[in-house]
Amino acid sequence: MKKVVIIGSTGSIGISALKLFDTVLGGYSVLAISANSNADELAAQAKKYRPKYAVIGTAEKAGVVQKGCAKTRVLTGADGLIKIASLKEADIVLIAVVGAIGLVPLLAAVRAGKTIAMANKESLVMAGDIIFKEAEKYGARILPVDSEHSAVFQCLQGESISCVKRLIITASGGPLKNVGPKQLKNITPEMALKHPTWKMGKKITIDSATLMNKGLEVIEAHHLFGLPYEKIDVVIHPQSIIHSMVEFIDGSIKAQMSHPDMRLPILYALTYPERGQGAVKPMDFMEVSRLDFLKVDFRKFPCFGLALSAGKTGGTMPAVMNAANEAAVNNFLDKKISFDMIPRYVAGAMASHVPEKNPGLDRILRADLEARAKVEEMIND
Questions:
Q1: CB count, 10 Å around CB of 286?
Q2: What CATH number is given to the structural domain containing 25?
Q3: What is the pTM of this model?
Q4: For residues 214-232, average pLDDT
Q5: Is 265 part of a structural domain of the chain?
Q6: Which residues pair with 54 in a beta bridge?
Q7: Is residue 277 part of a domain?
Q8: CA nearest to 207, candidates 232, 166, 249, 175
């Protein structure tokens, strides 16, 4: 019986993971769950799955979670996340939160030498070099959960990384792929949140609309697979059937394909190196009339270029870019800025920052806070 910790169990990835426990993960149990603020949902999950631990963001909401779950120990805040991420009895830790908040529990799991199912790209964007050095030191294993990185990981099984010519990461194009550049300033949060393929949280859906998400994924792929940015390409693939591809030096290309459903990459990470029973319906190629591929329009999606620039610059710059984007997206969702201003504030924060090479964790976290403050300053100026 493998015991799983799910950090971010009330988000889209966490909910999809729990659905697997209802169906195909009969030999697994939920050891611990967590949420930032959704106490009602966390309480319902605790009542159903009977975890040993549950973590909620604030002590004020702990009573809501504890009610009706007497055998579940309720913890709070960052200390609670660190506790469950490093539990001795945990076999797998699924990091399913969105944003920089995932960095602290991720490092705790790494330093505990855990197998980590990784669905938090922002942590790797901020501190990928530090995370993988720590993983090597403590014997932790990081398995990708993002559909694109899971696809690459699957294509690389049995292959030597030295034989890889390039990775080809696919993007759906997001909810605004057919919207002209001049119309972007009129995009409302409601419009940007209507993703044509994936049902995700608000922040990642807006990142999909700006294509920032794909830029973050390129940085994540750079760290996960140890390849230079020159060997990582992105193509728009509206059908989201091919989740990514790997081209090898002999000209051969491997692609991982399936219906778009996050349960598949989650299941693969939780059961690796085995494959669990099918979590998604089989592919019927007679129903797939076409597979289209398009170039990324850098002028329409400047956030994509900003992310690539930050990744190539390295040091503290990726943390600044990521934090500025989180702050700008939050302000857009609060209807304080227009959609087309998101990349302008990210660019402004990056331009005001002097990057430092080989930063420690403290400097990365300070750069994160400085970038958020800079965005707020620009918006309120």
A1: 6
A2: 3.40.50.720
A3: 0.94
A4: 98
A5: no
A6: 33, 74
A7: no
A8: 175
Assess whether 85 and 100 both reside in one domain: yes
7 and 132 belong to one structural domain: yes
> In terms of domains, do 256 and 351 share one?
no
Q: Answer yes or no: is 99 within a domain.
A: yes
**Structural domain boundaries enclosing 340:** 314-381
CB 214 within 8 A of CB 171: yes
pLDDT tens per residue across span 91-110 = 999 999 988 899 999 999 99
The closest alpha carbon to 348, from 363, 365, 364, 331, belongs to 331
Number of separate domains in the chain: 3
Kindly state whether residues 68 and 135 are assigned to the same domain. Answer: yes
Contacts 24+ apart (CB under 8 A), 56-64: 56/80, 61/37, 64/39, 64/40
Q: What is the 3-state secondary structure (H, E, C) of the chain?
A: CEEEEEECCCCHHHHHHHHHHHCCCCCEEEEEEEECCCHHHHHHHHHHHCCCEEEECCHHHHHHHHCCCCCCEEEEHHHHHHHHHCCCCCCEEEECCCCHHHHHHHHHHHHCCCEEEECCHHHHHHHHHHHHHHHHHHCCEEEECCHHHHHHHHHCCCCCHHHEEEEEEEECCCCCCCCCHHHHHHCCHHHHCCCCCCCCCHHHHHHHHHCHHHHHHHHHHHHHHCCCHHHEEEEECCCCCEEEEEEECCCCEEEEECCCCCHHHHHHHHHCCCCCCCCCCCCCCCCCCCCCCECCCCCCCHHHHHHHHHHHHCCCHHHHHHHHHHHHHHHHHCCCCCHHHHHHHHHHHHHCCCCCCCCCHHHHHHHHHHHHHHHHHHHHC
For residues 197 and 37, give the distance between their C-alpha atoms in angstroms, rounded to a whole number.
Answer: 27
Residue 196, pLDDT above cutoff 80: no
Strand 253-257: give its sheet, edge to edge: 232-236, 164-171, 242-248, 253-257
